[in-house]
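User: Reviewer 2 asked us to show a designed sequence for the structure in our supplementary figure. I'm pasting the structure tokens here. Could you produce the per-position amino acids so we can include them in the response letter?
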């Protein structure tokens, strides 16, 4: 490889935040023991926050953002990985504390990487990216009601923030698992899109606003919640006995206001999802399930491939809720 390559650099000198496409040097990659040529990265909500102003997430500057990527190994000091192995990285604070994936090359700790399953390729891996991986984690948390808890079959599952990255892919996976998916959205014009992903029923986000009783009629065997905030009060009150709520997001707020009643009267389970810290074993299992549960033709039709320049123009739309679908970043475009 040439020692020089391109990356997006964010900086914050004298309180002035900047983001530029710059040429950097292999020696600038100081962390880790595996050097990777990046094929794709993806644009996630957290990336947009970081590109905007660091998002109070990145503390050291100048910095290369990008919380996920797929690529091929160039050099490895760990014999778990050899040259040309295809690898996936999501989370582990890469793109937050360690230089990330909006770059032609990255160097990371070998303990953060998994090999791309033979059933996928590196483009498909980032069409899913952190959003798809999180959706897989949430969906298997719901399925655990059947296998892990040996409970009743899951039938009805609610998904919130359903037109978002995590929500959309969760709808696809859960319907493929055979469940009736009820999609909550604030976007009235997206009914056909959600039905096409596999949603049986669309519910207006407004239905979850306002006061809730301590317990309401139990409707949901499982809930994938990407939104958090006040809607969760009502959602907990509507979960059936032993139902599981997989909570992964805060698009609607960080506070939840609830009572113990759903938990002690109905045994409702709140299952927090942290995709960034998932174990390597869990990652390998979930990524190997992806091709069985995901219709990549459908995701491809919702995915735009961005250059670095396109990325810098696109991320503000994601923050304003104006971007729709998945965005993968090709550093060589
Ligand atoms: N825990 C983890 O490991 C993990 C991993 C990935 C993402 N996340 C989090 O999961 C959440 C979703 O991520 P994403 O990538 O899917 O984001 P996204 O693509 O921006 O989607 C979020 C969706 O939430 C809904 N929404 C937005 N603002 C809302 C509001 N004020 N009240 C209620 N609903 C609102 C919208 O869907 P509708 O218009 O259809 O309602 C929006 O499309 C984010 O909070 C993200 O930080 C967590």
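Assistant: Here is a per-position design you can include in the supplement:
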């Amino acid at each position: 490889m040439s020692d020089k390559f391109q990356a997006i650099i964010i900086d914050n000198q004298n309180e002035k935040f900047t983001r530029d496409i710059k040429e950097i040097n292999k020696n600038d990659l100081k962390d880790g023991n595996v050097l990777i040529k990046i094929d794709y990265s993806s644009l996630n909500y957290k990336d947009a926050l970081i590109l905007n102003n660091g998002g109070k997430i990145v503390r050291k500057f100048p910095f290369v953002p990008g919380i996920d990527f797929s690529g091929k190994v160039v050099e490895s000091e760990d014999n778990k990985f050899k040259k040309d192995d295809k690898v996936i990285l999501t989370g582990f604070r890469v793109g937050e504390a360690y230089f990330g994936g909006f770059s032609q090359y990255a160097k990371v700790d070998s303990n953060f990487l998994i090999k791309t399953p033979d059933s996928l390729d590196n483009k498909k891996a980032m069409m899913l990216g952190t959003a798809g991986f999180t959706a897989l984690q949430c969906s298997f948390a719901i399925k655990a009601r059947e296998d892990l808890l040996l409970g009743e079959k899951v039938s009805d599952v609610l998904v919130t923030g359903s037109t978002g990255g995590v929500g959309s892919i969760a709808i696809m996976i859960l319907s493929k698992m055979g469940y009736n998916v009820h999609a909550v959205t604030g976007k009235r014009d997206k009914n056909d899109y959600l039905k096409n992903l596999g949603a049986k029923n669309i519910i207006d986000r407004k239905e979850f606003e306002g006061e809730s009783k301590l317990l309401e009629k139990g409707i949901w065997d499982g809930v994938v919640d990407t939104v958090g905030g006040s809607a969760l009060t009502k959602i907990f009150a509507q979960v059936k006995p032993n139902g599981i709520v997989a909570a992964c997001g805060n698009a609607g707020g960080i506070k939840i206001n609830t009572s113990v009643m759903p938990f002690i009267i109905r045994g409702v389970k709140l299952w927090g999802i942290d995709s960034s810290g998932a174990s390597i074993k869990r990652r390998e299992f979930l990524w190997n399930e992806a091709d069985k549960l995901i219709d990549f033709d459908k995701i491809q039709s919702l995915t735009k491939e961005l250059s670095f320049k396109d990325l810098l123009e696109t991320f503000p739309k994601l923050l304003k809720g104006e971007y729709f679908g998945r965005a993968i970043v090709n550093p060589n475009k």
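For the response letter, you might also mention the following. The chain has a mean pLDDT of 95. The chain has nine helices and 15 strands.
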